[in-house]
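Q: Structure for this?
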Amino acid sequence: MSVVTNTTTIGAIEAPSRRNTELLMLAFAVAIPVFAYANVGLAKDGSLPAGMLGYGIGLSLLAGVAHLMMRKFAKYADPLMLPIATLLNGLGLVLIWRLDQEPSLGKAMAPNQLMWSTVGVALFLGVLLVLKDHRVLQRYTYISMVVALVLLILPMFFPGVNGAKIWITIPGVGSLQPGEFAKIIIAIFFAGYLMVKRDALALASRRFMGMYLPRGRDLGPILAIWALSLMILIFETDLGTSLLFFGLFVIMLYVATERTSWVVFGLTLSAAGAVGVAAFATHVQSRVNDWLNPLATKCVNGECGLVTETAQAMFSFGSGGLFGSGLGQGYSRFIGGIAPKSDYILATVGEELGLTGLMAIILLYGLLIERGIRTALAARDPFGKLLAIGLSGAFALQVFVVAGGVTGLIPLTGMTMPFLAQGGSSVIANWALVAILLRISDTARRPAPAPAPSPDAEMTQVVRT
Amino acid sequence: MSELTLTVMRLGFLAVLWLFVIVAVQVIRSDLFGTRVTQRGSRRGNAPDTRAPQQNTGGGRQQAAPPPQQQRQRRGAPTKLVVSEGSLTGTTVALQGQTITLGRAHDSTIVLDDDYASSRHARIYPDRDGNWIVEDLGSTNGTYLDRNRLTTPQPIPLGAPIRIGKTVIELRK
């Protein structure tokens, strides 16, 4: 009894490419950091900073070139990811430049960071150019596993920095954080592996207490990844990296199999592992102690009465209040210790932009992650879906681990805020990550080619008999 | 720098930052509701040229046809088809130059749930001058226009009842 009432017509979808929207958003995303830059200069010296023009031009050039390449090579990709990444990168540059103005915080890092951002955007363009179709990556499933393992294991053989061994030092070139690249490569491996194995993992299970228990032999991979992430925790003493890899695996396993039991298993295993390792490794132990008793004083190099960095970060959030002290008018120089420009850059945001600004920044990360997950939903092939989920999941976990660590929700770990924090590897790797996501989203949103006219589509004649 | 300027800049920066977030959310929103749905004016007979009306051909295959030759419809031309009796009473179909098929077949424009209707019972289509014609498609129980059983395609006067089994339809302005 269905009736076609032609009261509404869905207009022909002409598949908007949304590139103009992206251009507008990009202009906005370049303007905000320039504004911030002027703001810092006015607050510190009472005059517009000298490098403002050059800095603004540099950022617009990067954004402009990226945009033009997007028009050419990823026409239908998501319109928001590039502007948000540009904005976060630009704000990071301003914040680092602002911290450079404090002589007590060491040498200037902003020029370096601008250089690394350029390299990052170059890699972004390279990925867009070379990777015409993300499904090509599927061929390298097991190679990427090996590469990721090598990248993860390599830092063990290099001396640790500030207690965490997550660096590779190449004499004459500088140091590299391979974990940042490994997270992309391992997401490719997980996506390829789970795409093939997900049916076995999802269907072959017994029901027990309302939960699907996987078979013993299917537990193999999750146990192997768990063991690997524990090894990272023990030998590299870095909670962040190990949490990132294990968490990424559990997320992708859950998305691939739709079984809650994997999440339960994952959380149990990671909790057990973290508690177990924290009992032995002194570096992890001290981090946990700082987290549990942030206001305790400690002694470093014979100098006693020092407050923990966690407490310092909390004080800066507190003094920021709702609206912050204003850019360039905070006291970030008092966040002493190791990493005000990288790990603790969020504390500067919290102090100078206040809760309002911090929320905006976190929301920007949230929007970027949302676009990634939207891409996964829109992708038509299972590999692309899993890869997009994996990449945005890794990004989300990283943001959570850092933001949680700085705000005192979880023990602090040695990861960097993507795009915002100072650190070459992080910026480069995250630009590559965004490029892969954009490639998947371009494939997903590209309109299907018009079907070839088939003889069946001709009007059928009614033949009277 | 005066305190006031700095305060204005501080709050202004936060405002701009949030503005970016809001604009981004607006972009997402337009992305979600990107498909344009146009209401077909059932009061106005002339369809805008941009529309691609669905054409229901004799075989029932629905396909997007190129925009029909837009003829100025004369004043007083019917704009909708109304079912005035039968189980589908109250149903209207806007007339936009498409062929309307009636019958029990599932791909008909109006699917009749009527024991006295054939699967492909009748069709209503505009001729070259824009007059609406009703044609019986060799049904078992026949199509009646104003009590006369159809033998040949006939133009439909405005408001004349077309009876198919228990269903009566008519064209209205």
